[in-house]
Amino acid sequence: MTGPARLTVYSIALALMLCMQQTQAINKKPRPGDVSQGDPWQAEPYDFVFGNHIDTHVQLRLKQDDGELESLMGSFYIIFTESDGVTPLGTDPVSGLPIAHHPRGAEHNERCGIDPITCVVGWYMDAVPGAARFLYHSGVNGDDHPVWMVNRAEEAGAPATGMVIPQPGYFSHFHWITTSSSDPRAVDVPAQCDKNNAGQLQDQDPTAVNEICRGWFLQIHAVRDFAFKHGNELIPVYVGEDLRSHLNMVTNYDETPVVPITPTR
Does residue 46 sit within a domain? Predict the structure, then answer.
């Protein structure tokens, strides 16, 4: 084997090695594990809260450097059963994977550590601070994760710093903070962003549409295979870097398309 062929094989091997090293580094970090009824939940040091609905299914540790925000690190949770902790949610008929969704808190009797459910680690999560402009929650495909507009690079003309997809990494999700967050920036959260869920961001006055909200860019790494139920979708998730289950960022937006956009699902 000579020339380009040898170079191609070497490049593939190097890429695989780097991917394995990154995965090993992620897995070596100490992180909170599964949580059963009676176990502590969001206890120090994994006591960071966003101040909204995501807090029902994350345990995160805030890292600061001389008072400056640096990162979040922890676990992202799912449950495989109904609120009784016994009845399985079922099996995805397409992928054959067991169905799971995020624990949804007191309203659904799905409180980790309190109700008779087992909150299982679905992903490891790492995050860095930033900002994004809120666009919408409901679209042609129905309700979904809130969609945010960001930049690919730090732009001099951007209305706020940190509105840029972080690199290196595979950050695919932005999540906002409220005035109830343990994030030091919570004191400056405007009323438009001080909402518990995506629907409120869009529909509750004052609306957050076109508002820049502070928050965190999330990078998630699945630690098991399952079918993630979100809204009316069942999303197959496999061990490794996950870019699709929580994707909610765009870098451009046309509010008046020439041709109406039709649903894809």
Answer: no
